[in-house]
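REQUEST
  id: r-88c1
  op: predict_structure
  target: Mn2+dependent serine/threonine protein kinase
  payload:
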Amino acid sequence: MEALLGDRAGWKVVKDNARNLICYHPADRLYFKSFDHSSAGETLKRALRGSRARRTLLGTRLLQEAGCLAPDVVACGTLLHQDFVVMEDLDGPQLLNALHSYLQEPERRAWRRQLYRALGQTIGTLHAARIAHGDLRPNNVIIHPGKDGYRLGLIDNERTRRPVRFRREQLRNLKQIMLLDERYITAAERRTFFAAYFSRFPQGHRLQRSRAARRAIQRTVIDEVRAHFSRRAPVSGTPIPAEGWQALAGLQPAS
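RESPONSE
  id: r-88c1
  status: 200
  body:
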């Protein structure tokens, strides 16, 4: 690990600001992310809850133990007075960018419908384990191709946890993942997502027993998304190379 971190020529800077340095090592397909903890607030959080690097490690383990896909953490620690984490790369496009670049044509509508079903199942699995993601925006979901189909992976897992106030975080996550305008999701696709989401809760759970409870969550989330878009313009995906579609086109969601 010391040799890897010292390989200055091998690392390419992805992002560099006052809060984070993110680099990528193409040869080993690894990401490096450092965290500044010089502010008083972050120093207090670090003392009470551990470093952001350690929180990333713990959040990743929570996801993986629940059966969700997340990039493996290879190492975490402190380097030059900065906390850092080294993570494996998770192949595949980010969800919003894939919707923008690959899934606008009518002939791909069936593939997109399956994608929303898989997305609902993934987030349902997460929430059925009472785990909340720290920032469940669409581009923190990766469509990861594999030999048995694709899976949806979750990245940026620093704040992933089992919160005390789970329902609040549940609704926040659902709002975040549904912050997609009509270019990227139809009303029917929202229904597909929510049906798949609720299906992951165990028999006997309130969301299995009560249709009214399911409808209340769905209505609350959609109302909050509309209110959000009344204040802020929807985010657009970033165009990505067309060849990325070739790795996904023939795949179904992995069972």
